[in-house]
Design brief:
Blueprint lengths: L9 H4 L11 H5 L15 E7 L5 E7 L1 H4 L4 E6 H7 L24 E2 L5 E7 L2 H8 L3 E6 L25 E9 L2 H7 L2 E10 L11 E6 L6 E5 L4 H12 L6 E4 L14 H14 L3 E4 L2 H7 L5 E11 L5 E11 L10 H4 L12 E9 L14 H19 L3 H8 L8 E2 L5 E2 L4 H12 L1
Parallel strand pairs: 1-12, 10-11, 14-15
Antiparallel strand pairs: 1-5, 2-4, 2-6, 3-5, 7-15, 8-13, 9-10, 9-12, 13-14, 16-17
């Protein structure tokens, strides 16, 4: 019996606008998923971190006696011990002076944000480890804190890292076109004193976690974690704990959501490696949701000051200038890469030709930031859309029509932005109409 093969065309292959069956569900529904909490090794202990209740404080003393007195508690690792076991602080991406910042797997000498880990307990069960962590007695000397990204740059602001000597992690100016000429010759100049994009955090179903074993016989460190960038984590962890890449095994299997946030768990994983080495047994960490909200990397908070927008009387927006202050938090876990990546969307959807952005990344007494979906671009796109709304309000334009008028038009593609990015295709006015139809 012969059959005629079905002709396959671009149209029949397309998944755009189609309901596409998921192929990955069967094994998950059958309970065959391999998440980090499913990983187990012989003689594994459970870890829990002791975290600071202060935003900025000097560590006077740490007494682990009461915690160790509980039956089933294997050991406690403090920041000073961790530092002694390390070969070097974590690698920093930032140039000097911020590149001189010293971060260890656990806080040493002082804490720099509420949730900063000062010690980690290893015990027979997860619940016992958490109970024992509450018995670790830490004496703190509170210090003045700075939580405002603009105030962090002022001369009298508390310095987070004395070895750096400043809270400015990065500063640079982006200038495309001739914004001063545009402002001088525009029919209208709209001024916006301050715009603030808040902090936020992704909330994956599965929190951070890892199982780490430092084999005392082979000196091989085996890591199973839901960290979503194991190669990056390995490159940072290995040199710090003094383990060569050929003796560091790092695997990530199923990940219960991440959204970028699970890039930043490498300090805890490094601490677990040292904890395993000290205890002589594997260390397993399954993060509680409360700890996740305290210390898992948060999305960039950004403040825009002194924004000036050049607008023609017909509504054509020529460009704008602004000062952007980005809050990186207490440590630089991925920054200042955000100071660069936002420029991919410098104009958003619009045909602006003149832009000037003075960008400052700062250190503050807050949880460190880490890429969350839309990393760094989200904040700038929000600024651009707020500018459109403010201009429409101030000059009496309809915000929808003002957007359509200033969009890159279908006939403009391929379109090159002022900083050299190329948009290959699109129909932005039609896309906006479709969105409005769905909304209404």
């Amino acid at each position: 019996m012969s059959t005629t093969p079905t002709e396959t065309t671009v149209e029949t292959r397309s998944t755009i606008g189609q309901n596409v069956p998921r192929f990955e569900d069967r094994r998950l529904l059958q309970g065959q998923g391999q998440f980090v909490d499913d990983v187990w090794m012989h003689r594994t202990g459970h870890a829990h971190f002791v975290r600071s209740p202060h935003g900025h404080a000097r560590i006077v003393s740490i007494d682990v006696g009461r915690a160790l007195s509980l039956d089933g508690v294997y050991t406690v690792l403090t920041g000073e011990e961790a530092k002694e076991m390390c070969a070097t602080p974590f690698f920093q991406i930032a140039p000097a002076p911020a590149g001189n910042l010293e971060e260890w797997p656990l806080a040493v000498d002082k804490v720099r944000y509420h949730g900063d880990a000062v010690a980690v307990v290893l015990a027979e069960t997860r619940e016992l480890a958490r109970d024992a962590a509450e018995l670790v007695d830490v004496e703190y000397e509170p210090l003045p804190a700075v939580v405002d990204t603009v105030k962090a740059t002022e001369a009298d602001a508390p310095i987070l890292h004395e070895v750096v000597g400043t809270n400015v992690a990065w500063h640079g100016i982006y200038d495309w076109g001739d914004v001063d000429f545009a402002l001088e010759n525009a029919d209208h100049v709209i001024e916006i004193d301050r715009l603030h994009f808040h902090r936020f955090s992704s909330t994956p179903l599965e929190c951070n976690g890892a199982v780490v074993h430092w084999d005392p016989g082979t000196n091989v460190v085996s890591i199973s974690s839901n960290n979503q960038m194991p190669m990056f984590a390995s490159m940072v962890i290995g040199p710090t704990i003094g383990v060569a890449s050929n003796r560091l095994s790092f695997s990530s299997q199923d990940i219960g959501g991440a959204f970028g946030i699970k890039i930043g768990s490498y300090p805890q994983i490094a601490a677990l490696a040292l904890l395993s080495k000290k205890a002589g047994r594997p260390a397993k960490w399954t993060e509680y949701r409360t700890d996740h909200m305290l210390s898992a990397g948060q999305g960039n908070e950004r403040t825009f000051l002194d924004t000036k927008v050049a607008v023609q009387k017909d509504g054509t927006i020529l460009g704008f200038k602004t000062r952007a202050f980005d809050d990186a938090g207490a440590y630089l876990h991925y920054e200042p890469l955000g100071a660069v990546i936002w420029s991919q969307v410098c104009c958003g959807c619009y045909r602006m030709k003149h832009l000037h952005v003075e960008y400052t990344a700062t250190l503050t007494n807050k949880c460190p930031t880490i890429p969350n979906r839309g990393y760094s671009r989200l904040q700038h796109l929000w600024l651009t859309e707020r500018i459109i709304d403010v201009v429409a309000h101030e000059l009496g334009f309809d915000p929808v029509q003002l957007r359509k008028q200033n969009y890159v038009q279908p006939e403009d593609y391929p379109y090159e932005t002022p900083n050299g990015c190329v948009y290959d295709s699109g129909d932005l006015p039609r896309s906006l109409d479709m969105a409005l139809e769905l909304i209404h």
